[in-house]
Amino acid sequence: MPKMIFRLLLLLLSLNLYGSVAIIAPQSIYEGEPLEFTLVAKGFDIQAPKISEIDGYLVELVKTSREATLIEYKQATKLSIKYRLYPKKSLSIPSFTFCIDNKREKTQTKKVTLKKVSKTVSKDFDLQMHLDKESIYLGETAILKVVFSYADLENYELIEPHFKDITLTQTASKEYVNREGKDVEELTYELKAQKIGRLPLKASKVKVEISKNRHTKHLTIYSNALFIDVKALPQGISCIGNYKLHASINKDTLHAKKPLILTLYLEGSGNIDNLDALHLNIKNTTVYEVRSKKVTDTLYKKIFTIISEKDYVIPSFSLRYYDKTTHNVQMTATQALHINIIEDKHLKKETTMTQKALFYLLGLLTAGIIFLLYKMYTDKREKKEDSPLLQQVRKCTNEDTLFKTMVPYLGRDRVVDRIIYALEAKEKDDFKELKKKLELRLNERDDLFFTA
Q1: Distance between CA atoms of 51 and 20, rounded to whole angstroms?
Q2: CA-to-CA separations, 355 to 241, 346, 358, 359, in angstroms, rounded
């Protein structure tokens, strides 16, 4: 009997008899990492304090959760509130006051030490960052590699690096085994700076999980830190590299309203990604342009279609860039191109009212004869034979071949013109739908497309 009473007393003592508060926070964090802490309160009626800043640092509310608990065999509430801030020095989390069941309960103060990040040294794992160049010009690209090698890890998470005033684009990822027999994951990024100066690349990190003797341990592994010097380009220059501009046309003499195809090429390498910034504006012409296309790693092209009724000049395209080899500003340009338009002239003669009436009667008679012949022809043949152009269109298997087939027929029909421009842009409809629309239109208006 005494043993039973003793056990009962222990059980009562182990229960939460009153409301309580507590703080959960780390003793230290590394520079650049967020400080996260949680306030926990238990009771029947809980009123939490409002926290907006600590020691001058803005405090962010991360998560609030509630769950049931027991106090004196009665169901109560356990309230957990998680906060986050980014301190730049060691600090103390002050005491906070909760109102629990009409009583004031205070948390303890908690001191958190800010540690400087240093590269983790271990025989089991290693995290390294490498730059292909230590100095770049603003707008120029550098290559950053993050390499993690490890052995005997249960699990890990390689955190994607983030640097102030720098943008990163991952371009490659590979895994392999190195000479030491360790597993390696290697990530490659293109790095571009957003400002000039000596910019820091803080240490990357990976969170690892190690299991030994049935115990799991969580660690954060840090890489080396780097710096990159970003230099300004000469005033008025935004392009860097080595380039050549070329322009070609399909013909320099053509009939009025016939399309001319101008292709602009940019050959070379540097910080230019496309030719979308180059536009063409010529008086008394209609110009259609297609978004630029990357042909190879060192070649871009952009196509323009020009329609006019008069002679015109395609102006020179030019590009000024900074050549790192010569350390000078260079310029590449195309030649101006003169286009001759052949005008179709028709002599107009004045006609009398009698002639007009005669022409009208002859027109009616001709229309009647044509209608009868057409009726006889359609009755004789059940199915109309495809025109040569429609047969060509049916054989086309992609946008490029269909576009080249139809370009000579620009200006004859608005519906067909829109389909040709859509094929050129490759944006509005898919190929099959465009081809179907084109076949239907050609079948309806084959009288317009007998000759190119």
Answers
A1: 19
A2: 72, 19, 5, 6
Tokens of 216: 């799991």
Q: List Cβ neighbours of 196 (8 Å cut-off, separation of 6 or more).
A: 138, 230, 231, 232
Q: How far is it, in rounded angstroms, from Cα 129 to Cα 168?
A: 14
The three-class DSSP label of residue 386 is: coil
Say how many C-beta atoms besides its own lie within 10 A of residue 19's C-beta: 21
* The one-letter amino acid at 190: E
Length of the chain: 452
Domain 241-342 sits in CATH 2.60.40: yes
The CATH fold of domain 125-231? Immunoglobulin-like (2.60.40)
Nearest-5° Cα angle at 73, 69 to 78: 15
**What is the pLDDT confidence band of residue 127, given thresholds at 50, 70 and 90?**
very high
Model's pTM, two decimal places? Answer: 0.55
Q: Which residues contact 145 (CB under 8 A, 6 or more apart)?
A: 129, 130, 132, 186, 187, 188, 189
Which residues 6+ apart lie within 8 Å of 358 measured at CB? Answer: none
